[in-house]
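Acyl-CoA carboxylase subunit epsilon
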Amino acid sequence: MSVEEPLFRVVRGVPTAEELAALVGVIAVRSRPTARSAPAPASVWARSGRPTGAGLTPGAGNWRTAGLPR
């Protein structure tokens, strides 16, 4: 019969049962693969505050041109 290594161990302190349960919960959630979903579409209110027009593409220095008058 083989003895398996523990997934984690406490090396300092004396955690309570509640603290260990919280740690196990965090490790379990963090070890699950995440589902990548498409971002939610922006609301009309959020889109109203964005600049419009061509030429606002990502790139070096383009943040400056976004604030210039057209």
